[in-house]
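Sample entry (236 residues):
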Amino acid sequence: MKKIQLKNTHKKYFLFQRNEYLSSQQIKIRKLLGRYLFTKIFINFFNSLSDINDNLNKNFKKEFNDLIDHLPRTTSNILDIGSGLGVIDIYLNEHYNQKPNFTLIDKNFIEKKVYYGFNSSGQAYNNFKITKDFLLHNGLNSDQLSIFDADSNLLFDVKFDLVVSLLSMGYHYPLDQYLSVFKNNTHKNTVFIIDIAEEYNDKNQIFNLFDSAKILYKSSLPRHNYIRICCIGFKK
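Predicted structure, serialized as tokens:
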């Protein structure tokens, strides 16, 4: 399996998005200073790039291996909602022999305040130029990749075979922001892999949106629990 490499230019955006790679002391400092100021000024003094890369590869490799048996056998078009840097897409690209087209949706700015939990609009800690550079650096081709701002008019002319949203849609903000995309741009065999924060969502109500649904993983985090679900066929 491919070894993913963050460059120094990618590091701070990865740490914006993945606070589990910070120590508890660093998280306290970040809460005091705010996410933007902490990462802009202090992040260069913490967390060696080699250590982050080692942990990233160990953690994401395990996460991806847990998903393999639930992926569609073939796929031409993959949608990643709340993609961040798109780490999981590198594994998907390798798994499908560099054949899929990837559509990534996220926001293209950085919140200055630290937000936790669930709200109506989600948070943004991203830079599309950095995301694209990271993905090209790790094996994707430019013609495979399209990145869209979540605040734009999301109109697509493809049917997605796989939709992933890890620790994003349903975890930080409601699924209903993307129901029209699901309705117009998926088919009866589309596979959805989504993380749902249980205390903010009615699990059964979400399950009823799909022809079939099952729980892949159940986690308990300090802030809120979530379940990873695999669903097939959005009901239109």
